[in-house]
Amino acid sequence: MVYQLMENATIEEIKKAGLAGHYADHRKALFYTDATGNPWTATYIQAKGDPIADLHEDLAAEQKARATYENLIHLTDEPEIKEILTFLREREVVHFQRFGECLDHIQEKMDMKKYK
């Protein structure tokens, strides 16, 4: 999607979009940052080594991603971009559902062990 948006962009369009600094450092290549330009870091990944705590973290991450896609959908008028973002948002909903099923399964297994 980023490549599609940037592929035919002129230098003037890049400047107007506020991406001159990005272009100076990375041209039209991807460089993973959040919406305010902070670089991606592995500290975004949360893990405790406890399956229940980790699954709750995964569930929260999926909901945060879904909310972000919804925000991005509201920020664009481009139908093709909305279509892509809607697909990605729906994928996060499915991920949330699968993590929820895993959590139920893990909790059932842990409850069985407690009573044996």
UniProtKB/TrEMBL annotation:
Domain of life: Bacteria
Ranges in coiled-coil conformation: none
Cofactors demanded by this protein: Mn(2+)
Gene3D superfamilies in UniProt: 1.20.1260.10
Keyword Protein transport in record: no
Keywords on record: Manganese, Metal-binding
Protein name: Protein CotJC
Organism listed in the record: Clostridium saccharoperbutylacetonicum N1-4(HMT)
